[in-house]
Amino acid sequence: MKFLQMKEVLMWLGLFHMALASCASLKPLEPKSLSEVTLRNGARPRVEAEFRLYNPNRMGATLLPSTLDFRLEGVRLASLQLEQTRMKARADVVVPFSAEITYGDLVAAVPAVAISLLADRRLNLEIEGTVRVRKFLFTRQYPIALRQDVRLRDLRLR
């Protein structure tokens, strides 16, 4: 009887050790790109896009709801709410987002965008913040920063 109890305790300790070891080595997510960027005009202007991340870990994980800042030419336009998403191991994950833009933020971005357009430069889009990743019972936070230059014709205005 004692032998079975000892064997069971050792098995649980081994499983617990494997879970700790696998989560301790979680690598940070790598931001890849922004695509399908759309600026919608209307009663409430919105920005919509797809944010591509790469999970370099050997195991899948869950991207927990996180908040990121979206900037256009260095001016903060919106606060993005990423939804909970399951990520496969060593694979890209596309996280769609949609955020409301206030008219004050939109007006603040006009001079910077106008200068870039007059200088015939690409527009600078940035996403910055912290994402939370969970594997089993363990949660980690990683900083995310992506800077991408886009041409005006690549932006969809609706």
CATH fold-level assignment: Immunoglobulin-like
Pattern of helices and strands:
HEEEEEEEHEEE
Task: Quickly give the CATH architecture.
Answer: Sandwich
The N- and C-terminal alpha carbons lie at a distance of 72 Å
Uncertain runs with pLDDT below 50, 5 residues or more? none
- The radius of gyration computed from the alpha-carbon positions, rounded to a whole number of angstroms, is 21 Å
Assign the CATH class. Answer: Mainly Beta
**Helix coverage percent of residues?**
10-25%
Biggest β-sheet strands, sense, barrel? 6 strands, antiparallel
Number of helices: 2
Topology, number of strands = 10
Explain what the structure shows.
The structure is a single chain. The chain is of the alpha+beta class and 158 residues long. It has one domain (27-157): Sandwich (Immunoglobulin-like). The protein has two helices and ten strands; from the N terminus they run αβββββββαβββ. The strands form two sheets. Strands 3, 4, 5, 6, 8 and 9 form a six-stranded antiparallel β-sheet that branches. A hairpin with a 2-residue loop joins strand 8 (123-135) and strand 9 (138-150). It is elongated and about 80 Å long. The protein starts with a helix and ends with a strand. The model has no long low-confidence stretch (mean pLDDT 86).
